[in-house]
Amino acid sequence: MTLNIKPLYNLLIATGLLAGTLITSSCKHNDATPVYTANKAQLKQLTDSLNLVYTSSIEGHDLGQYPKQARTDLKESLDLAAAVNTGNFTSQEVSNAYANLRRAATAFSGRIIEEVAAANLVAKWLFTGNAMDATANHHDGQLMSGIIGTEGHPADGGTLPVLTTDRFGQAGSAYEFTNGAYIEVPYTVALNPGMLSISLWINPKETNSDNYMMSLDRWNGFKFQLQTDNFLYMTVKTPASTFDNDSNPGKMTVGAWHHAVVTVGNGAINFYIDGALSKSTSLAGTLVQLASPVNLAIGQQLPKDKFNFTDSTDPNYFYGGTFFRGSLDDIRYYNKVLTTAEVTQIYNNEKPN
User: Fold this and answer.
1) Hey, CA dihedral for 233, 347, 345, 133, is it positive or negative?
2) For the range 188-191, what are the long-range contacts, defined as Cβ-Cβ under 8 Å and sequence gap of 24 or more?
3) What is the number of alpha carbons within 13 Å of residue 315 lying toward its C-beta?
């Protein structure tokens, strides 16, 4: 259970420790020599209280936790304040130390990890031991074996996604996809919004022209994949047309974790890689509603029971195996266009130290 220390910080405000009161000086401005009789009571009280906040805070990448650097910065400020508390300093120097510590406390409070665009978060698959949706929306995934092979020669890969090590080196905290394995999420209209954003972490095992990461009925809805040279590639269908765009020049590196975001809506398809905008292309219209329900596939082009293997005129005809090869983690699915600031915040919250 994550400890939320915001109440401690709010208590400091309520008790006036962060109210900005200046410590009164006991020296005269025109004194020729410094007078070291400053009142340090407020500084010591603030230092003691923030030490409690510091020791109660948890370093990590989950909600309610703090990035490593945030705790490091606060500790440095606390150490400086402690030195002033025990040394010989003028009232002005003590006042400065108090003001600096207040600023450090405010900065630290602002760095607590909170959900980004929580009101628009449709699903969140953290892959920490399972494929369950971490939101209250219950878009839980089921591990599935998927279809591989070539046109006219399909086969079931017979392999499920396997838990693997994530970008932080934690075992059982990401999924590896091989041989057509995928995760299937039951369709609801919430998974078929008019605009969307997908945020995920990718570690591709190889370069492949059809490395499907997420798909809702392929080009009949949308598909998010890697293509040639491991560029991100998004296909979406709107009433106006079908739009195919890639992230060139931004691309994934084989064998390395990268953060990738695609946003669709408000007249554009935007690609972000490791927190920075890689490419933006124009878009007309909003995503279409599927004519009939098709489950969301993570790591495959379609749920395996939707393929047509005999009729090439069928929209779900099997043209050959197109599935993800590599590892995925921490997938966030939104029904809005994330802003650049929101994408950067997600990346900073989730990136390895």
Assistant:
1) positive
2) 188/139, 189/289, 190/122, 190/137, 190/139, 190/335, 191/122, 191/123, 191/139, 191/216, 191/296, 191/333
3) 11
**pLDDT, mean of residues 338-343:** 97
* Single-letter residue type at 216: L
DSSP state of 291: S
Most confident of 12-16, 23-27, 88-92, 269-273: 269-273
Answer yes or no: pTM beyond 0.90.
no
- Number of residues written out for the chain: 353
Query: What radius of gyration do the chain's Cα atoms show?
Result: 26
Among 61-70, 170-179, 240-249, the range scoring the smallest mean pLDDT is 61-70
Residue 33 pLDDT class (50, 70, 90 cuts):
low
pLDDT of residue 1: 44
Cβ partners under 8 Å of residue 20, min gap 6: 102
Cross-strand partners of 282: 268
Alpha helices per DSSP H over 57-145: 68-86, 91-109
Residue identified by tokens 């400053």 is: 38
Q: Which residue has the tokens 């921490």?
A: 330
d(CA 288, CA 283): 13
